[in-house]
Each structure stands twice: as C-alpha cells, then as structure tokens.
Amino acid sequence: MQKGNIGVTTENIFPVIKKFLYSDHEIFLREIVSNAVDATQKLRTLASKGELKEEAGDLTVHVSINKDAGTLTVSDRGIGMTEEEIDKYINQIAFSGANDFLDKYKKDANAIIGHFGLGFYSAFMVSKKVEIVTKSWQPDAKAVKWSCDGSPEFSIEDADKQDRGTDIIMYIDDDSKDFLEENKISDLLKKYCHFLPIAVAFGKKKEWKDGKQVETEEDNIINDTTPIWTKKPSELKDEDYKKFYRDLYPMSDEPLFWIHLNVDYPFNLTGVLYFPKVKSNFDLQKNKIQLYCNQVFVTDSVEGIVPDFLTLLHGVIDSPDIPLNVSRSYLQSDSNVKKISTYISKKVADRLQQIFKTDRKDFEEKWDDIKIFIHYGMLSEEDFYDKANKFALLKDTEGKAYTYEEYQTLIKDNQTDKDGNLVYLYAQNKDKQYSYIDSAQAKGYNVLLLNGELDTAMVNMLERKFEKSRFASVDSDVIDRLIVKEDEKKEELAESKKDILKSLFQTQMPKMEKMEFNVDAQAMGESAAPVVITQSEYMRRMKEMSRIQQGMGFYGEMPDMLNVVLNTDHKLVKDVLTEGENATAEALKPILGEIAGLTARRDAINQQNKDKKWDEIPQESKDDLSNTEKQITEQQEKKTAIIADYAKDNKIVHQLIDLALLQNGLLTGEALNKFVRRSIELI
Ligand code: ADP
After folding, report:
1. Dist CA 620 CA 667 (whole Å)
2. Residue nearest to atom 7 of ligand 1 (CA)
3. How far is ligand 1, taken at its centre, from the CA of residue 121, in Å?
4. Averaged over 336-354, what is the pLDDT?
5. 469, 405 in Cβ contact below 8 A?
C-alpha cells in the first residue's frame, strides 16, 4: 500500500469546496456521472478502432444506493485507470484544477459556482470519504483502489476487481443524508442526466402486481441517449417534436411551432426551440429553455446566450462552444456567444417567414398566440424587425389579417388626410367602442383591432418606421376630425349661442373620481349622434405606456380627460338650445348687458395701453383693468348659475349626457338607476 500527500499548497481544499459551493451541492452527481459517460465513450472509440482486445459488452452506467453502508456508487465499464493514470489525473491534474478554482474564486464566485471545472472533486461536497476502484482497459492492467477522506492525504492499494471500468464510491456525509434517498437521486438524474449519450441505470424497473409495486429484472434506464436535437430534421416527424415537447413540459399545451437548430460552422450548435401556446400573458415565463453541453445539462438560465425576446420560448440548446465557467457579463461579450445569439434570432425569423409563405392560413390562425413574441422581437431587435415586417400581421375588427404592405394599399385611397398623412384607425375593444367603429366604417374606413399587451409600444414604433403615417384610436376625436380631408367651411353656431349650449351641458356633467369632462360644440351632420365622448390620442397612449414602462407613473396618476362633443346639427341639441335660450332669456338679459358693457370697457383699456410696456402703464389703469376683469368673471358666474339652475331639471340634457356615458361604459350605480327611471318617465 502506498501513501502520499496530495500536491496542494492550500492547507485543506475540501472545506473550501464545501463552503463556497454550498448552494449547488447537487451538481456533484452530474460531474461524477458525466465522467463515467466520458470514460465509456472513450472505450467505444477504442473498440471501434479495433484496439480493444476484449468484447465491449454492456456499457450501461449504474447508479446505486447502499443505505446500510451509507454509500452512493456510480459504476461504469469504460476505459478505467491504471495506477499511473490515477496519479496523473486525480492526484496531480485535478488538484491543479482545484488551485485554479481557488484562483478564479477570488475574482468571481459566480463564475465557478454551478458550472464545470470542478469535476471529480465535487464529490467531496457531499462525502466524508470517496473511493475509486478501477481497472484499466489495457491488457494485464491491475485493479487499484484510491481512497481519500477529505484531508489532503490519500492512499492507493491493489484491489480485487475482475471487470474493466471504474466504481466511484461516495460515503455520504451525515449532513447530506438526503443524497441516499431514492427519490432525491431519481429527481437529480432526471434533471442533469436526462439526455446523456450513454444509458444510465438507476435500480430496476417497477411494475404493478397485486396492487403493489414490485421490482422487475429489467434495468431502470433514466435517460434518452438520442434526444431529437441529435437527429436530422429529415428523420423526424411532427409527432416526434410534439412528443419531445410533452416529455419536457408535461403540463403545457401543444406548441404552436418549432425550430430545429443545426449548425457546425463557425460554431457548433444544435437544439429545438418551441413557440409555446400561452393562455395569458401572465403565463409568459423566462428560463424555460435548457442549455446542454454535449447532452449534459448545464443550466436553464439562458439570458445572454439567446436574444432576450427568445428567452420566452421553450426547448433545448446544445453547444460545446458556449464557455461555461465564466461570468454572465463575460459571456455577453464573448464573440462566439454573440454569433450564436444572432444566428438563433435570424433562424427564428427565417422559419416564421417560411411558415408564413407556405401556409399563410395556419400562420394567421396562430398569429394571436405568437404575436407577443414577434412584437417583443421587433421592438427589441432592429435586425429582427427588418425581417419580421414582411410577415407581421395587422388584424382589423372583422378579424381579417393583412401584412403591413397589404394594409397600406388597402387604406391608402380613403384614409389619407389633407396633409398627405396616412391615418391608421384602431380600436382596443370591439364591444366597448362599437359605436365609434360603426361610424368609421360608415365612412368607408377600416378599423384595426389592437388589443395586445405590446400594441401601444408597437404603434409608437410603427409611426416612427412608416413614412407620413399616424395611428389614431377611433374614439380619439369625432369622425370628421379623425381624418381631416379638406378645410371645409361648415355653418358654425354663433359664439354666444355656443357658449350657452356648452354651459347647459358642462354644468350638468357628473363628478367622477379621476375623470374630467370638457364640453365642446361642433357641427357633425344631422345623422351623427347628438353627443360623442372622445379621449385624446396623446393622453391615452401616455397612460397606456405608463402601465408597462417604469418611470412614467406620473401619467398613470393623471385624471382621464374626456371630451364631450355636442353635435350642433342634431335636432335634439338644437331643441335644447332654443328652449334653454328662451327659458333663461329674461334672467340673462341684464347680465348679458352687463357683460357686454364690461367687455367693451376692458377692450378700451387694453387699446389705450397697447403700445406701452407693463411698467409704463399707470397704476390707475392697471387697477381699472383688474377690477373690470373681476366683474366680468362675477357676471359670468352668475350667468352660468342661471343656466345651471335651468339645466338641472332639463330631462333631455341629462338623458343625452347619460346616453353618451352609457355608450362608454361610464354609467354605473346610482347614476344608472336614475337614468333607467328617467327613461321610463320619458316613455
Ligand atoms: P475533467 O473530467 O474535467 O477532466 P475530473 O476531475 O472530473 O476533470 O476528472 C479528472 C480526470 O480523471 C478525467 O479527465 C479522467 O481522465 C479521469 N477520470 C475521472 N473519472 C473517471 C472514470 N469514471 N473513468 C476513467 N477516468 C476517469
């Protein structure tokens, strides 16, 4: 028996390993099992070259638990190691690796934790003692046993082992006893070893017999050695992709599309990405893509490796060219990783374009489900936008879908305003905005339905991208002003009449929290509605953006400002005005006389001082002016009070206001009740 000291300068490496890798203890299993797989693959290579003198035989790697002995063992029938090799690979190399580990740790702990580079010694994270019993494939090799209890001392002695290969026997620490639980190991094998290229067995297959689970003779193989991403797309059917998806995400609905990635130059990358069917945007989850390195699971956090918008996809990526033992920030600046990211993004765009071209119907049907991904991509990546604007769709309120180009052609003739701007009309809710959509369609306009989470952001972007174009919500103005065709002269009401009309309604608008109404009067034609409520496009968008963007909370706090537009061409509105004027004429007469006198006086003072600077105006004159203005205000208030007093009992005014509110879903509770009662009375 030979004893030796492990050539390490650090007093004791193992406590360090344990402490700093605390959160990721479980990866030891991946390290040990993938070493076994590596050794087995090397043996296969030797056998295929005819260098192996014996039969390769069954090459399954076995993982087993012995609760009595407190051991977890990983056994392979790979190339094994001679005593010299143990000395070289375990005693020397691995420990220089551990030194590297310490060096690296000083710089960036995250860089090492959870990634490769620790290898065999990670077994000490969970073991108080580790034994290697191994016999090399070489003819006449002697079996040896290496043993180390976590101190920098190891022993090596002859062993009694007939079979070629290696057993790694881990004596599990008292504080890591859960690694002796069958369920725990089974879960870890599923997580880290699910797609290793050599069969891995854990116990025996179980069977239901007489209401009990009993073990069979058959090995329980926990992995799929040839997952679909290792196969050629031409060998696979749709069902194979769907089945693989079900295996990965048993709880998810069937995927919408998938993309098979397969490159070997200038970097090596394989994988399958799926567009998931999301039931709501709350379902969207990052970190559903698994990253593998030669079929060994590495991580399910792929940020920095795939473009941000694609982290919402599902699936697997396998690449030996992604550096694993580096930090995320380094990763993002790595040129290979950048190329990979660009490649994936391009591949996704090409595939979507292809589906669009070959099966537009299918693409249109799935559009509502995939648009969130496409919009996210277009918003975040210029290159993706340039490709996607050929197949991204716009859907109108009738459900018809158009490409950007098709839609432009459709609306060009009828929806260009007098300044040559193309106006895209849109609604966000087909039912709530029904009357606005209806009046737009009556004009022969087409209305888009933009109700997606990212549509407001898209609208802002498309306005920048499209030339001479503007998007307007159907209810952002009265129909004639949405797309102004020419400066037509309409017969407008006299200012004084308009004033009274506006007051009749403004004084009767309900008080609502976070809601302000601004009444205006306009000639909109006899057949248009008597009262229309609109909301400025600018305010709406700012409010929308404040919901999804940080730092815009200010807009969210602002009250909704709604315009209430009275149609001066409508008979009901005309009647209200005539009756209102008549009923208040007598009371208003002296006040209007006063106002006329005061206004004339104010204008005279202003006229007098019009060429003077502020400090050249005599104080007297200034006082006179402010006094006059105060009196005007007082008289105007009186006027408003008289009109309000009359209007408060005018059923038509209230009925018209309520109808407009009702059409916008703003009439609820007591107000709605009053409206119903008044309606019955009026019938
Ligand atoms: P790495 O696998 O990254 O090289 P490890 O510390 O995991 O580092 O292993 C060091 C070396 O020990 C391996 O390169 C291999 O030569 C040898 N080794 C480890 N496990 C086995 C095994 N099961 N069979 C044969 N050789 C092994």
Report:
1. 52
2. 119
3. 10
4. 89
5. no
- The angle, 0 to 180 degrees and rounded to 10, between the axes of the packed helices 619-647 and 571-608 is 170
The three-class DSSP label of residue 116 is coil
Predicted local distance difference test score (pLDDT) of residue 258: 94
Q: How many residues are given for the chain?
A: 683
3-class DSSP state of 606:
helix
Task: Report d(CA 587, CA 310) in Å as an integer.
Answer: 71
- Within a 10 A sphere around the Cβ of 639, how many other Cβ atoms? 20
Number of CB atoms found within 10 A of residue 319's CB: 22
- Strand 531-535 and strand 289-293: pairing? unpaired
| Single-letter residue type at 223 | N
pLDDT, tens only, 317-335: 998 887 665 556 666 677 7
Q: Distance from CA of residue 598 to its chain's centroid?
A: 62
Q: Over range 570-575, report the average pLDDT.
A: 95
Q: Which atom of ligand 1 is nearest to the CA of 116?
A: 3
Q: Which amino acid is located at 527 in the chain?
A: S
Sign of CA dihedral 87, 89, 95, 96: positive
DSSP state, 642?
Answer: H
By C-alpha distance, which of 156, 211, 175, 225 is closest to 1?
156
Q: Mean pLDDT, to the nearest integer, of 15-28?
A: 65
* Ligand 1 pocket residues where CB is under 6 Å: 31, 35-36, 39, 76, 78-81, 89-90, 93-94, 119-120, 166
Quote the mean pLDDT of the chain.
87
